[in-house]
Amino acid sequence: MKYYISSKLKKMMHGGDYNPDQWINTPEIWDEDMRLMKLSGCNVMSIGIFAWAALEPEEGIFEFGWLDTIMNKLADNGCYAVLATPSGSKPAWLSRAYPEVCRGDADGHRQPHHGRHNHCRTSPVYRDKSQLINRKLAERYKDHPAVLVWHVSNEYNGQDCHCKLCYKAFQDWLRVRYDNDINKLNHAYWSAFWSHTYPDWSYVEPVDPSIHGLMLDWERFKTKQTIDFFKNEIVPLKELTPDIPITTNFMTESKTLDYWAFAKAVDVISWDSYPGWHEKGDDVKEAARIAMHHDINRSMKNGKPWMLMESVPSIPTRGRVKKRKEPGMHLLSSLQAVAHGSDTVQYFQWRKSRGGLEKFHGAVVDHVGTENTRVFRDVSEVGHKLAMLDDVVGSTVKADVALILDWENEWALDLGAKVYLGDNVKYREECVSHYTPFWENSVSVDVIDQTCSLDSYKLVVIPMSYMLRPGFADKVASYVENGGTAVMTYWSAVVNESDLCMLGGIPGQGLRKVFGVWEEESQSYYKDETVSFSVIANNSLGLTGSYKAVDTCSVVHAEGAEVLAVFEDTYFAGSPAITVNSYGKGKAYYLACRNKTEFLNDFYEKLIADLSVKRCLVGLPEGVVALNRTDGENKYTFLMNFNDDARTVAFDDTYIDLLTGKSVAGSVNMKKFDVMVLES
Ligand code: GLA
Ligand code: ZN
User: Fold this and answer.
1) Per the domain annotation, does 423 fall within a domain?
2) Which of 26, 153, 231, 556 has its CA 20 to 30 A from that of 605?
3) Beta carbon of 272 within 6 Å of any ligand 1 atom
4) Which string of DSSP letters, residue by residue, matches 109-157?
5) Residues forming the active site
């Protein structure tokens, strides 16, 4: 079975953010753009993302002439458009005429017109005006042959808007959430603490970081209000162009919005990925981190193809040190996204702007304006290689393993657990640590949240699920009871969805029975401090030796669980570090400390073998990773060497490398940053 992002183009998409509105007075540049797009193998451009001022220079005066020209030129040149709606940046007249469209500062004042991505999500005027321009765009281009996908707005974010409109909407939303009963809210926020009891809804303002339940609700509200805003934007698009898929570019690495909630509202997932290659000299580590984020996006639509909407052909402009991609890395990192299920490689940006904040940000076409640059050649190579992957388009990824990374839990940890664990919270990093051994072993992983179904997985990994969302504990219990294997860590099931602590011992809500342990207390350590633990002889998983825990350890009592390892050399020496409990037909492992790579690799390798979890290829050297995509009949194996030197890979079978058309068998030398796409 194949799933196409658009039935109009059953090819890998390649292109990027294109801002012809910045070059409106130099039409010869537009023609040169078309020539260069063809030359670089670009077939899809994202257009009009920040073009509101060019599309509606004065209120109610619309100018589409320039966009007509560009859209026609694209179509004439065999290129398609990911057509944007422009709400990511407001025209100046709008802020001046209707100050309510600007976000409110902490002191309630409206911000001046500046920057971008800073509109009030609640403002009825901004909602009306953005819907109107979207309607005009949809009316004008609904039948245009170049239109492929809608790119709604740009990088919606979760920054605060402290305006009266948002506060009122927040309070209205809370009324519904707490059944119009202020006592329920007071209980959920434990507001008797420091005498913060709210007399009525009008008092509830998101300005009190001492009330974690309140600030958690504020985070939830901002996600909800952003999705609402998005839904308002797409009304005319759904009405006039029901067959054109809709996406908005996520920033999945950031904590700002709950993208799982947002994913339900879009047709296709897309995200903007900016890895820091060569930054700290460990590209293998960075590749694993980015792989996990690609997998979140793939998992959001059940393994169906997604869009890499932005990446950089060379280096972004950011405040920190940035290195250019070394030869080979551009192709490798582009195909890494494809290996994880993307059917596009899109860039920010097509052509460097002459001025403004991002004039030095990497682009396919540099200020020199020609094709004679290394970046242009790198991009053309990607274009050329993607054109050889027609068969892969529409194929999906299937995973045996799931890792839970939950945005609401992440917010809760940063609010509620930070006061206790300090800088050692590191939730995202901990998720990456648990993800990496699977990636290193060429095992596909779905990265899902607490709202997802667990049933199809052989193994579910639950790092630091501090906050339990309603229903999650029961889901884990029945998953294990029915034969699933779960791994959960310290600092899980500590609070409910309002950040109220579990009474009666943690892990709470019945998980104490599932995991067969009670976590009595925990503590945080300074950098460089470690606590050793050693494995019990003849344990059921076959682990051996001793390891060192870092950052945080918990004192756990086995209540029926088998103890696999115990702490040493500390006041809680002898207490369990690693346990496993049989529950129903399944097994529940508990890790009472934060672990380093050494243990996690050994532990998960044992589990992969024990559960017969599928590995895409076996026997690969470290830093060489294989991932499969499949359409049910055919399998495509992406083989990637993230090491900065060559590695020898031995194959049992014979394959064709789709990128070269050559056959691959026996022992093969993969050079630094080499990539192959193998079909057997
Ligand atoms: C984001 C934005 C782009 C651009 C790039 C530059 O991803 O969506 O408009 O600013 O960053 O890094
Ligand atoms: Zn607002």
Assistant:
1) yes
2) 556
3) yes
4) PBPPS-SSS-B-SS-HHHHHHHHHHHHHHHHHHTT-TTEEEEE-SS---
5) 155, 310
